[in-house]
Amino acid sequence: MASTAPTAHPSTARIGVDVGGTFTDLVLHDPARDLVHTGKLLTTPHDPSEAIISGIVRLLEETGLRPEALHSVVHGTTLVTNTIIERTGARVGLLTTEGFRDSIEIGRETRYDLYDLFLEAPPTLVPRHRRLEVPERIDANGAVLLPLDEAAVAAAARRLVEREGCEALAVGFMHSYHAPRHERRAGEIIQALFPGLPLSLSAEVAPEIREFERTSTACANAYVQPLMQRYLDRLEGSLKALGFGGNLYVMLSGGGITTVREAKAYPIRLIESGPAAGAMAASFLAKLAGLDKVVSFDMGGTTAKMCLVENGAPDHKFDFEAGRVRRFQKGSGLPLKVSVVDMIEIGAGGGSLAHVDPGSGLMKVGPRSAGAVPGPVCYGRGGTQPAVTDADLVLGRLDPAYFLGGEMKLDPDRVRRAFAERISPAIGMAAEDAALGVQRIVDETMAAATRMHLAEKGKDPRRYTLIAFGGAGPVHACNLARLLKMDRVVVPLGAGVASALGFLVAPPATDMVRSYVGRLERLDWGRVNALFEEMRGIGHALLTEAGADPDRIAYTPTAEMRHVGQGFEIPVPLPGLTLAEADLPAIRAAFFESYRARFGRVMEDSPIEALSWRLACAAPGSDIRLGGAPAGGTTSLEAARRPGRRVLFEGHGWRDCAVYDRYALPVGAEFAGPALVEERESTCVVGPDSAVAVDAMRNLVITLG
């Protein structure tokens, strides 16, 4: 789009920024001008804020807006999860109750692979010599058995900071979820000794029962806190230097947005920040399209994310494992008590590298990625190992002259040489057949992961619609849907940057939890109500600070409950924020309904206990309409056609494909595959025997034959 002279506008524009491993995606929405504008550029791994600022400057130039016109910027990042996976965080020290120094290393005393004699345990973030004990003890009922030794706290803090060089401290005392006064006093002592030192109290980071998970979460929060504080400070400074005077918000792992202040205090709650935005975008698009059963498929340059969306909302869970030693093996990572969108994420993206395993002689794809630097071979930036994007180019799916709208030229000859030199000799196939093999492997990998994710929830993929987005998602969506036996795929306008859209439509929201354990008939309902009132007050203040209308904040209470004697609990909806003994029949009925939905049967005579009480606080998100007239006022399908090209399809060979300009397709247009639909940030590949219709929101609705 041609640049125009900047003009003054009220501060109504918002920008969503998604920093991925390969590309940084941006969406600008200005309701005052009924404007939606997108951007995509390579991520700058050494400093992600550089790509963010460059992208924002570009969007402002292309839309003719000044920085003063920006009301807010909403940001998501994979910096937290990358820091934990790569073990590049701060030097952390832990203060814990005397006798419990090794609890985060002992864990649950379980083996994630029972028969592996050489099992590799997930490494702790805090080595033993930086875990110090403090005399103190509070029992499970909140009674003080041993007063806090304040001199020992001060001595331990000095040793960790002055002798061990710790950049951040975590405090995790026994039963602090129930009685946090010892932890809070320890925090006061540490802050008085070392003002400004990043400090994580387990009772504030994760105020839940289960000592191992709570302490592990506090340590992880301390581990990433200095890095995230520096990053957010740098980003705020760069935005201010640009002339931005609005608010910077951050996406939480649970799909809500929060303030920078909250993000600096509890950065571990951002661990799935980037992927959550895609799930929120899919939920928003599903509502607009009137779909109640959807699988969100977000395939970018580094990873693919699949998420179940029902009735306009993604599934959530309240525990997460980071940095797994074995990618899909539960128990092989660091347990965290945080609210996250429930999705599966695998190393299958446009940058996933193809290689031949020297032992088996078989070709494999991923999880290692070319990233933004050097990138796939076709980028011409130093990459030598073929990637998924390289295979898509060889197969004819991508136009080498129109990648990123023509901004980045791709080199197919370089890719063919790379396949011929590195892949073909080892497997005895021509470059084109090897590229087709790469496509099949990555699609099968994603299909297997999606089947597993849905099977764990008792869901049948054939009853769902696939919503595909991300730079590589629409390229692989039809093949993936066929493997899952789905019959419909929806690809939204601007699919290549739809995750960034998720930041703009996500509501200001937060989840809070407090643990109070007891059998239902023995609970002190006054205490339960006090917990909910405390959480409601905190949530109200946080969301108001995040820009929510205080009169439109909704509060949804749930409890985690189980039968007495069981080891795991299930979430149960509650009838209200104020509860009494008269609500017991309704609470029991809700528990049995949730239990039956999960396990298929109930045990009505077995006593029930509650462990934790949760409150979800959310205000309405923004409504952004992506429809509108096609570019240039085009009203016919023929006017949207571009020169066709040949594409290699598995089982069909080389086929001549019609090519359409995504921005010129009118509402109501219909055409049959094989076809390619191109937009600046992505290409949608429609296979043979498929039909496409453009709906009222200008989504491509693909029906598979």
TrEMBL record:
A molecular function GO annotation: 5-oxoprolinase (ATP-hydrolyzing) activity
Hydantoinase/oxoprolinase N-terminal domain residues = 14-192
Q: Where is the Hydantoinase A/oxoprolinase domain?
A: 214-509
What region holds the Acetophenone carboxylase-like C-terminal domain? 529-698
Q: Which PANTHER family match?
A: 5-OXOPROLINASE RELATED, HYPOTHETICAL 5-OXOPROLINASE (EUROFUNG)-RELATED
InterPro entries in alphabetical order: ACX-like_C, ATPase_NBD, Hydant_A_N, Hydantoinase_A, Oxoprolinase-like
User: One of this protein's GO BP terms?
Assistant: glutathione metabolic process
Q: Which GO terms describe its cellular component?
A: cytosol
What is the name of this protein?
Hydantoinase/oxoprolinase family protein
